[in-house]
Amino acid sequence: MDSGDAHGHTPQTQISQSFAGRRPVQIRLEKFDYIEGQHRYCVLNLSQTLFGEWCVEQTNGPLGEAGGQQRRSYYTSQETALAAAETYRDRQIKRGFVPIPVQLGLF
């Protein structure tokens, strides 16, 4: 281990460990309004682009039907992108949406 440090880590494993906190974040929200017959979903996706920017992707529309909208916003830092995603999530929760658990580790 001539290229590693005292703990036996190679530079490649040190680089991959430094990005451990930069995993994509996905939040799925759903709203069921039985009185008006509306069943809607909203997905927030926070990921880093190839150019180092952070992208907040908002996708929403009716459940089980065609249609929907998709909007992307780009930020220079992860903190501002996360704050924007949390603001949008809180706004949707106030409108009656409920967070649904999503497992990203399976892919």
The share of residues in extended strands comes to 35-45%
Q: How does the overall form come out from the CA principal axes? A: elongated
The largest sheet has its strands arranged as: 4-3-2-1-5
Instruction: Compute the number of strand runs.
Output: 5
Largest β-sheet summary: 5 strands, antiparallel
Report the uncertain regions.
1-20
As a percent range, the share of helical residues equals 10-25%
Distance between the termini: 33 Å
Mean pLDDT: 78
Order of helices and strands: HEEEEHE
Give the number of helices.
2
Rg measurement, Å? 19 Å
Instruction: Report the structural category.
Output: alpha+beta
SSE layout and pairing:
Layout: H1 11-18, E1 25-33, E2 38-48, E3 54-62, E4 69-75, H2 78-94, E5 98-100
Antiparallel strand pairs: 1-2, 1-5, 2-3, 3-4
Verbal overview:
Helix content is 23%, strand content 36%. It is of the alpha+beta class. The chain has a five-stranded antiparallel β-sheet with strand order 4-3-2-1-5, covered by helices on one side. A hairpin with a 4-residue loop joins strand 1 and strand 2 (38-48). It is elongated.
